[in-house]
Amino acid sequence: MSPKNIIKLKKIRKKLDKLDNSFIKLIKKRTTLVKEVLKLKENKNQIIDQKRIKFILNQIRKKSLKNKIDPKITNRIWKNMIYSYIDFERRNFKKK
Questions:
Q1: Looking at the 3D structure of the chain, how many domains does it have?
Q2: 35-73: string of b/e by CB count within 10 Å (b at 16+)?
Q3: I want to staple 64 with a disulfide (CB 3.0 to 4.6 A). Which of 21, 38, 57, 74 is the partner?
Q4: Residue pLDDT, tens place only, 7-56
Q5: How far is the first Cα of the chain from the last one, in angstroms, to the nearest whole number?
Q6: C-alpha 84: how far from chain center
Q7: In three state form, how does the secondary structure of 66-85 look?
Q8: CATH value at residue 21
């Protein structure tokens, strides 16, 4: 890689790092909301809502296409996020 491209790469990576910091803040907010939702669930079998998952993924696909983002990327990101939060809910579910 040329020295000029190395400099460009460093600048782009710095922007990516800044964006990642924004993601972390959003994930914290989302986690807080998920904790609130979890408090409302009375049974562990309420943790997974297939209709809701399907709805979310469908909406993400539409928004991705509208914004010219490869829907395979966003689908994978959202699926991973959804199932990570399902795992979080299972680990933190407290029977009432």
A1: 1
A2: eeebeeeeeeeebeeeeeeeeebeebbeebeeeeeeeee
A3: 74
A4: 999 999 999 999 999 999 999 999 999 999 999 999 999 999 999 999 99
A5: 59
A6: 9
A7: HCCCCHHHHHHHHHHHHHHH
A8: 1.20.59.10
